Structure formats: C-alpha cells, structure tokens
Amino acid sequence: MALIICPECKKQVSDQAEVCIHCGYPLAKLRNINNTEPDLSQSLYFKLRWIDSHNDVDEVSVLTSLITGINIIEASKLIEQNYSPIIIDGLSMEDAEKLKDVFAEKNISVAIEPDNYSTQSTTLGPNKNKLGIKAINYKIPKQDVNDFIFCPRCRSKSIETVAVSTAFSWGEPMNVCQHCGHKWKPGKR
Description:
CATH 3.30.1390.10, alpha+beta, 4 helices
C-alpha cells in the first residue's frame, strides 16, 4: 500500500481506497479511467469522457456545443448534471484522438474509453465553426448513474450539507461547496 495525493483536496490517502476518506473524491473511478487502455480488437467504437474536475464548466460546455452542434443550454446540462460526463460516444479511435487534441488545446482533460454500447456511429465532418469540425450524427450519450454530490460550479466533491435558519423557518438544508463557496438547495443545481 502506498499513499497518494487526492486530486481534489490534496490530502494523503491510500492508493487502494475507493474514495478519498477526506472529501469523497471517487479515486477508484479515476484510477480505472486513467488505467484503461482501449483495446482496439475488442471495441468498435470509443467515447470521450471529461475527467478534469478543475476546468471551468462553461468553457467545456461551449467547446462541446461547438463540436456537437447542440445549443449551449443542452451542452451545459450535459456537463453540469454528470460528474464525469461522456461528451461524445460512438467515435472511431482516429476521431476520438482528434477531439482529444481539440480539448487539450484548451487545457481540458478528456479520456478515450471503449464504447461497447453504441449502435450509431458519430463521425467528424467539416464545419464553419471556430474549430473547423463538427460531430455528425451526434446524439446526447446516455450517462453513467452517479450517486454522489458535486458542486455544479467547480465540480468539487468537498460538499457539506448544512441547515440554514431563517426568521420564518427552523432550518432549511443547503449544500455548500467547501472549495468555491457555491450554495444550492439539495436536489437543485
């Protein structure tokens, strides 16, 4: 067993831990993403997943909107409502690598993973947007079920739920991000 630094709270934690004991960051999921090398012989399609929790959500949404052609509101929902969202699925490895480079130019970390569920291919074609490319046949991909809370503004897993007292009520629960200070009601974004 070795100690590693949690990418979220920067505290030491066991490299065998499923989640960070200090902030709840999903280390096992991150470890699986980082260690997964796509097997070309086993997968026909690949998916592009956003894995960097420290990028601005709006910047990722704008780039996703430009590439996929969906409006910025739909792109924002896709990014904000999922902890590490699948941005595009059904890609060939060549197209996935091209898109990974586009995101890397903006310092946005994405991972290429095997996609064994897509039945429709997404291909890249020319477009007159700033990037010069657009995903053709794009459909919003089905996301993994995430059962943890994260900040919709900065993606931090360091969330505390507190009761906020007002003059008219005894205490209303409120989620507070310990990283950026953003507050929101549980169940809302």
